[in-house]
UniProtKB/TrEMBL annotation:
All copies of domain Rieske, residue ranges: 57-165
Superkingdom of origin organism: Bacteria
GO-annotated molecular function: 2 iron, 2 sulfur cluster binding; iron ion binding; oxidoreductase activity
Organism field: Pseudomonas marincola
Protein name as it appears in the record: Rieske domain-containing protein
Alphabetical list of InterPro entries matching this protein: Rieske_2Fe-2S (IPR017941), Rieske_2Fe-2S_sf (IPR036922), Ring_hydroxy_dOase_asu_C_dom (IPR015879), Rng_hydr_dOase-A (IPR001663)
Length: 396
């Protein structure tokens, strides 16, 4: 965002707070729990969302140097290997040797390799995916062409510091996929220069939408986060904006924003006065706090399970140092654990929500007018899924 946008967002939040309001939708919204618990529904999502559209899968700064890689599974157990090549481009490959399909690297692994060597028969690949060599290849694999046995590659593109891939290998990732306002927002956050402090990964027993919904509304702050977030935020107050698709930017004002009314605009700093959320559904949420970014990656594993990767991104060490100072490390560790604590407050609720939905006791959910970002999200979701507007509650 530019400076004028930053000022306008603060003014918008101040105006809402002054009249005791938040960003409303014109009506409430209700729909069936089937979209959270039905295996058939999950398969519909698989076809309409998880396999048919470009997906944000990582931040480029997670792979800063040639040879840096990370591995993860996509929906249907598709094994992915992201690696920055010697040409500095990040590519997305299948994490599978072309010989006998062995995994080249364990799932959830990160590190740096100058070449990728299969642990089964030592077939080796370059960081650009080409087959470099295989023991006794000429003698044992007569008729096969090494040039045709590179790693299986998915179309991918780096946009604004985020890495997108297309799960359908016959389709590409458009250059203009992401709205300019989102790209400008990532630049404002200095996303491409961030460094990975730490990461953790685990599985939550809840549908991906249940977990995503908890991250884009503030109605629950004073209850679910009464001892963590509530003391620092302005209650049920948030603003958001979207520029198409299921992507949005949300502003969650904190109590220091009230001081803006007494300060000159030149002293206004939205990162000090609010948390910013950038959501790239269904996988990536970026939570911007004053001195760090939390990347929360969600991979839907099944209708009732979602893998979560938490990655804390921070600025490089001060004054060009090779390592963070002890004070910086203490700050980063505190933030890493605090974000996890808050998320687990949401995840614990999410698992009970999923279990209750599966029980069938209550068969619908409702979003209030002040949960407007949730209504927007489901409006966009329904367009992609091809759900008729008059079938919100009766869907099966």
């Amino acid at each position: 965002m530019d400076r004028q946008t930053e000022i306008e967002l603060i003014k918008q939040a101040l105006a809402l707070k002054a009249c005791g309001e938040t960003q409303y939708h014109e009506s409430t919204h209700s729909h069936s729990t089937q979209r959270y618990i039905s295996a058939d529904w999950f398969e519909r999502e698989n076809q309409a969302i998880f396999q048919s559209r470009p997906i944000a899968i990582a931040a480029a700064c997670e792979l800063p140097l040639p040879g840096d890689y990370l591995t993860l599974d996509w929906v249907n157990g598709v094994p992915l290997l992201l690696i920055r090549g010697d040409d500095n481009r990040i590519r997305v490959f299948a994490n599978a040797c072309r010989h006998r399909n062995a995994r080249l690297l364990p799932i959830g692994d990160t590190g740096c390799r100058k070449r990728l060597v299969c642990p089964y028969h030592a077939w080796s690949y370059s960081t650009e995916g080409s087959l470099l060599g295989a023991p006794d290849f000429e003698r044992g694999f007569e008729g096969l062409d090494k040039r045709q046995l590179g790693l299986v590659e998915f179309s991918s593109r780096e946009i604004g510091g985020m890495v997108f891939f297309h799960p359908d290998r016959d389709k590409g990732v458009p250059e203009n996929l992401l709205a300019d306002e989102m790209v400008f927002g990532f630049a404002y956050l200095n996303l491409q220069q961030q460094k990975v402090y730490k990461r953790r990964s685990y599985v939550i027993k809840a549908n991906w939408k249940v977990l995503l919904e908890g991250g884009i509304e503030a109605y629950h702050f004073n209850v679910a986060h009464k001892n963590t977030l509530a003391p620092f935020f302005l209650g049920n107050l948030s603003t958001w904006q979207s520029w198409g698709d299921m992507n949005l930017r949300m502003v969650l004002p904190k109590k220091p924003m009230l001081e803006a009314a007494t300060l000159p605009e030149s002293a206004w700093d939205i990162r000090a006065m609010a948390n910013l959320i950038y959501s790239l559904s269904p996988t990536i949420t970026l939570l911007a706090q004053p001195d760090n970014l939390s990347l929360i990656r969600m991979v839907p594993l099944s209708v009732g399970e979602t893998r979560i990767d938490e990655v804390l991104l921070v600025e490089p060490p001060e004054k060009g140092a090779a390592q963070w100072s002890q004070e910086e490390l203490r700050t980063h560790e505190t933030n890493f654990n605090l974000v996890n604590k808050v998320l687990n407050e949401d995840w614990a609720l999410g698992e009970t929500i999923q279990a209750n939905m599966a029980s069938g006791v209550v068969d619908e959910v409702h979003f209030g007018r002040f949960e407007s970002a949730l209504i927007w999200f489901h409006d966009e979701y329904e367009k992609i899924m091809g759900i008729a507007a008059d079938a919100l509650v009766t869907e099966r």
